[in-house]
Design brief:
The complex is a heterodimer. Chain A is mainly alpha-helical. Chain A contains 45 helices and no strands. Chain A has a domain of 182 residues. The longest helix of chain A is centred in the first third of the chain and has 26 residues. The relative contact order of chain A is 0.04. Chain B has two domains: 62 residues, no CATH class; 141 residues, Immunoglobulin-like (Sandwich). Helices cover 0% and strands 47% of the residues of chain B. In chain B, strands 9, 11, 12, 14, 15 and 16 form a six-stranded mixed sheet that branches. The model of chain B has no long low-confidence stretch (mean pLDDT 84). Classes of the chains: A mainly alpha, B mainly beta. At the A-B interface, helix 10, helix 11, helix 12 and helix 14 of A face strand 11, strand 12 and strand 13 of B. Chain A: Keywords: Endosome, Protein transport, Transport. Chain A: Belongs to the VPS35L family.
Amino acid sequence: MDSVKYAWKPRKFNYLKIAEKNRLKSTRLTTADYHPLKSITVTSTSALKVKHSDGKSTYSEAKGTKKKKEPEVADFVDPLSALTLTDPLSSSQESPAKAIKQQEDVRGEDESEDDFEPWTSREFVKLTMASASAKNVPKRYQSGASVSDKLKDRLGELDDFEEGGFMEMQNLNQQEFMERITMLNETLTEAWNENLKVKALKIAIQSAKLLGNTAIMQFYPSKFVLVTNLLDTFGSLVLRRIFSMCKGIDKDNIDADKVPENAREICMNWLLKIASIRELLPRIYIEAATLHCSSFLKIGESKSTLLRLTSMARGIGDPLVATYFRTYLCHVGQLYLPKFQGHLKPNLYDFIVTYKQVHTASVQNVMATQKLDMPTYLSLYKPALEWMISCLAHKAHEATLNEVTERCYKNISSLLLLNCCITAFNAEYVATRALSFCSIFNGSQDTLFPKYVVYQTLGEKVVKADPPEAERLPLLNEVWKVLVKIRNPEHYMACAMIWVEYVAKNFAKKEVNTVLNDIIKHLTPDRAFKRFYPQLKSVVGTILSHTNNFSDIFAMEKFLPFLDLFQKDERKEEVCQMIAESFISNQEQALSDPIAINGLMYVCKAMHDSINALSMEGKKTLVSSLVSGVVLKISFGKDFEQQLSFYVECRASFRGLDTVLACLVHAVNKLSAKVTSIVKGNHTRKTAAFVRACTAYSFITIPSLIDIHSRLLLYLESGQVALISQCITQADAMYKSAISMIFELASVKDSKSVFSQNLLCNFVTNFLSSLLTVPDNTEKGVLYLLRGLLNVISDSSAVVNLDTKCLIFIKVLSVLTAYGQDQYIYHVDKVDSNENLYSSDPKFLAEINSIGTTVLDEILGYLVSPVAPPEMKAQSACAFHLFETVMAHADLDDESMQHLAATSWGISNQDGQNKNAARMLAEFKKSGGVYQKIASVIQSQPQA
Amino acid sequence: MIMKHYKYYASPHDIFRITDEEARIPFGFVLKPRGNNKLYETYHGVFISVQYVVKCLMKRPLLNKDLTKDAEFLVENKNGERATAKITSFSINPNSVQNVNSKTNLPRFSIRGKLDSNYCCITRPFTGEIIVESADTPIRSIELQLMRVETVGCAEGYAKEVSEIQNIEIGIGNVCRGLAIPIYMVFPRLFSCPTLESTNFKIEFEVNIVVIFQDDRLIMENFPLRLTRN
């Protein structure tokens, strides 16, 4: 078809009238009561009694209740407001002595807030069980063998075992021992299930005998855990068997009178069998494991058994074995009789009495053969003692704790025991007595247990709970006097790490500074700090988390030297990142303190300098976001000039990171806009100079960014801000740079992809909207910027696809219409746009129309050109856009415009894809007027 | 060997079948001693045993062999003398020992303690305590030996034999000095019975407390007991 030339004729709009017409109608409120947006209030408070018989009645009742104004008498008592019961805990004001006596026998009922670590979650238990289960029990049997065959094989092995095997087991190394024990455990259960109960008992006895052997002492605690696990299994099997013979007996409250005769008989048999075991250790261990069975015979018998076993433990000569047996007693006590406490104190006190055994020749000889020194040997007792003391200390009255501490210290002045006490007692108790504990440590003559461990434990407790006000400083002084003298850097750091938290929590920067100084002094000789980076990092973390005010942190003169200790680059970065994150999340007010700013800049520069060409993307993003966050939080209030010079400094320091530069440009723009809003647009000479400086800053900074898209957007934004600040020439320069930047898009990778094209299209649309507000430069001609843009777009086929070009040109048509109005739809305050410059000069309007016509030619040229089928859809879409634009912006009274509309409709529908075509046409016809005419023109067109 | 027989015949109407394979026949009898004799309690010993056995004999027709089965049951005499508590203290030191070769080679030691009673109830545990006040050589173990003393006599003479029933360890290793270690032992069921003195035999019991030192030397202290079931 011949290309028909169309002359563009824009429509005239009266924006005010349109706005008026489109505004929503408002109705005045007649009464104050009714407002559709007021919340629905319900005034009735009675409970609704729902009748299920008749659905209708429910509804009417509900409706009826709503209308009631007076609240009815409540039918139910609100449990939350009816708290007339007194708190049971606060009502017990008994004297301490009585409390101790009560505690001796029965624990209180209050079970809430249990911070008591049960047996299985104790550290050494967990570790042992984990490493035991990690080992694979070797599969020595063929998979085809049945269970009973396997069992027979294993029991056969067990027989060989019994002869010399258990002796041999004493000499196995750890792994093999663990494997063996695990296998024994399984064999035990299987033997039991096959009704070979005597064999099961034998296994239990032989395992318990293993605990009498202290050949490898350091392995003893783990051995203990494994063997007692087996014994617990055995005990529970026996208990279950007896339970199965009693129907209907409550597990927790066994009433001996209700136990049937056959169950009694079986129980008696077991007890007699166990009581006849010759050797002491297996006998008492198995009696302990089957403790609960005796309650079937007589009420309360298990309690007396537990007490008896406690005293029988005195028959064990080796203190290590005895202590662990006592631990087992506490464990089974906890398992079966959780409320009974009568055995706890005797166990502990007996241990204290027998403590002197560690000094006897027999023990010393064994230690010498195994080449153990006293501190290592004593540390083997730690898990056992901690368990015993924490069982005792759990919910204990304060007087009990006092008594225990005194006993522990008076008789043997052992730091080991004191350490375990402090670990086991609750934090509040320890904290209130921290100072007195400290003096005890200082006065202690005990050289067997390392002192720094005790201080470490004390520190941990003191951090959890605060000591009384008056004692805090003296405590710190006392403790630090000791710490300063510690020569070994490991010990020193272990303590210092914890006590730093105490200082950070309770004291101001002066003390923290002193502490930091001390740490630096301790770690500088021999460059010891190289070994302690994780600890130093945690020190910094602690200080950061407890100090909210960053000016305080940097005011500490030793803080930056402390950071210098991190000489390895990665470590330094980690710490800097930590500081920056903490600053961003914790600092609420804007910071303006110069010292702090100096410090933070140092930190940020360190992070920035760590980024090089080899850094990963994620790290770059992280550092950029941290630096931007820090920079944004620094504000000088009303001192804008200082703020700007600060941003200039930042630009110099952080020129490697694109995101930071972009952030700075945004910040400067924001500054400029703020100034303008403060002076409400009436710039003085000073403020005008300032905003010009801001614009200059943006103009200089933007080209240093690497990413072209960011540059484009920043140019646009800076241009808008410049215009708002009434710097028109600068705005022009910005927009000109933006336009020329489009050429550079060609260098961007995949600039022809749909994504990039969309970006470009969006940018240009935005740009065109902003151009509306820009007054022309009279020297350069009418619509100079617009024409420049058009030239660039038409010339850069390397950057712009044909369909994108078409779309852009269509948008230009709408802008041209806007340019042609008497009053523009929007302006920038105090900036005269073209409407005032030209005042609808006919030459200006003619110029607009000619540009419009040229553009239209280009568009139509593209639309009628033949394209490959994949692009046809895009082409039809373009054509439809044109149709829409024509309908919205062209003067539809003009016949040629109507034809144009029809043509574009025709092109967009030529592949028959538009399903809504018929409906739209019908709508047009209904609308009447000019639309109807267009519809008829469309229909009169021949189908292409 | 004294055996007393009781015979019980099942009459036809006592027999009832539950299934074709299983028939249960209840029975019962009163156990009465013959003449003036008393019923002694069940006791398994080395030279003397008192056993009560039920023997079931099933006679079968000619060609099949008769079937028999024995089952032992226990007899306990609930009425007996009442045990009274009488605390027995003891003290062992180099001066108090007898039966020694030469007193000069004795290690230095001092041990004392007490038994809660030597007139004990057989159903209750045997209790007491022992304290090692001092000992120069380390101790290996402390043990409790329960012994039976069986005396069998006839017109010509009598024979007395002592043998061990059980050995219970109450201390292992070098025990702490000055600490009271409990003595605790449960009397075994079949192998002990109340002290029995009859016309031709006697069954008595005694306890030894044995302390063994590291150098294999040992000290033993003997305590005769009287047991009853009440």
